[in-house]
Amino acid sequence: MFTCTATIDPAFVIAPVPRRLFGSFVEHMGRCVYGGIYEPGHPESDVDGIRLDVVKLARELGVTTVRYPGGNFVSNHHWEDGVGPRDERPSTLDLAWRSIEPNTFGLNEFMAWTRQADVEPMMAVNLGTRGVEDACNLLEYANFAGGTRYSDLRKAHGVREPHDIKLWCLGNEMDGPWQVGQKTATEYGRLAAQTAKAMRRIDPSIELVACGSSNDRMPTFGTWEAEVLDQAYDAVDYVSLHAYFEQHGEDRVGFLASAQVMDHFIDGVVATCDHIAAKKRSRRKLMLSFDEWNLWYESRFAGQDRLDWMRAPRLIEDEYTVEDAVVLGNLLMSLLRHSDRVTIACLAQLVNVIAPIRTEPDAGAWRQTIFYPFALTARYARGDVLRVEPTSPALYSQTLGDVAAIDVAATRDPETGELTIFAVNRSDDQSADLRLRLVADGPAEVVEHTVFGGQDLLATNTKETPSRVEPRSSTGHTLDGTNLCLELPPVSWSMIRTAPPVSTANATSHCTGSRGQVAASRPAA
User: Fold this and answer.
1) Best CA proximity match to 346, nearest among 525, 172, 105, 477
2) 218: CATH
3) How far is CA 220 from CA 100, 213, 293, 427, in A?
């Protein structure tokens, strides 16, 4: 066992926890929509074809924002094909995923779904094969009250009140050679600025996201952001980041330290944004939208060009392990500690396609392992994100060099005094003794200690065994005054919550230094 120390002081605040940080993503790809959130005739579906078991799990997951309809899909999508009477909608070719798109689920169905799931919509416009005019038409259809061509068309389709969508993505991954309508940074930056200008004339209240690099391995990373923002800095509110993580070769330590890669990626984009702000002498501070992130075993994917023309094919339905869930929990910690700049994030995707929720036509929906750290973080990361600088021994990664063995993040609700601590042990063979000094106005007690990982690292949840893997309660802690000690098993993600005691008597009994049993339950809906 090795030792790590840190101080947690509520005076050192990074930023309030952005609720949009716990977003997700629904793309017309594979079985995310058809057979995922929408499956007419399924026993769990309502009369409109919405799978209510998926809605229930999405609410339990704590999703706050959902990006739609893509993704690569949006870059040759005609939104008009997905509105109006279903029997009059055409089937079309989706060039992104070489699929047949039936268009039986579109904008209005998605907006009805967001109301059931209690999430905020984040809409993307097609800047691949279309442009300014089409984006304005879609915005008019969605947000304008009435009395015009497209707003009245919405009313004719049975939707009297405007959808009032506030978040809009100006295209998707426009630097990627896989993208229909790929553009240079100059071309895209100019188009994004022109589209933003026109859209704001229709609805000045909207927030706009410009496309950053598709990932930080792109040969134009950094220069793409600089050129796009040179064109569009004053026209947009956010720049996007996308990243997917997997283990490369035998470098398990590097995989477990994926959050360190995410940290570096975010810091690089922040530096570029601030460089352009300084260059333009702008006092605006651009925020970041990490609107695609997850674990994806991309090396197993055959590639877009090898896909056959099918409706709702099974695409990248990765089955996640306990180890994957530990890494995902750590990635959420990275997003939290950058909450002063990353104020939107979307786990890609919500159902079936590299997703926390899985479905099958002959079964109910179930939770993958990655569901749990996301749900617990979304529920308990409240109030302010605190700055934590742990001291930790280093582990060696073949791809990253030395990485910290222990990572720690914390949030505190100033209204209730509740403190939530997240900790990850990246060592695969040693437990860690995490010693925390809590700076507080008064006594506290541990109210929950939950651990994920530390054993059965390759275990998964499946249709046959949907509850094989769940978080477990831990007694591996002591709290003596302001000194909190935690035992972190190898390859584990832990969450511990403290709160002011209900009474002085309770505080005395909980702060004697003895290890106390803490109940942990599955996240509730």
Assistant:
1) 172
2) 3.20.20.80
3) 32, 8, 20, 34
Residue 128 phi, psi (nearest 5): -90, -65
Q: By the 8 A CB rule, do 452 and 21 touch?
A: no
In a domain, 392, yes or no: yes
Angle between helix axes 185-202 and 223-232 (nearest 10 degrees) is 40
427 and 332 both lie in a single domain: no
Rounded CA gap, 359 and 367, in Å? 9
Rounded Cα distance, 414 and 308, in Å = 54
**pLDDT score for 503:** 62
Range of the domain at 471: 2-11+384-510
- Give catalytic residues, as residue numbers: 173, 292
Looking at residue 157, the DSSP 8-state letter turns out to be: T
C-alpha distances out from residue 318 to 85, 172, 301, Å: 35, 23, 10
Nearest alpha-carbon partner for 65 in 345, 443, 462 = 345
β-strand pairing of 120-125 with 238-245: unpaired
Query: What token pair was written down for 42?
Result: 């399924």
Considering the entire predicted model, what is its pTM?
A: 0.93
- The verdict on 405 and 374 lying in the same domain is no
Low-confidence stretches of the chain (pLDDT < 50) are: 504-525
Q: Check if the beta carbon of residue 286 is closer than 8 Å to that of residue 271.
A: no
Q: Find the angle CA(329)-CA(74)-CA(247) to the nearest 5 degrees.
A: 30
Does a structural domain hold residue 523? Answer: no
Burial per residue of 127-141, b for 16 or more beta-carbon CB atoms within 10 angstroms, e otherwise: bbebbbebbbbbbbb
Would you say residue 259 lies in a domain? yes
Strand, helix or coil for residue 22: helix
The pair phi, psi for residue 89, each rounded to 5°, is -80, 140
Give the containing element (helix H, strand E) for 337: helix 322-337
DSSP letter at 75? G
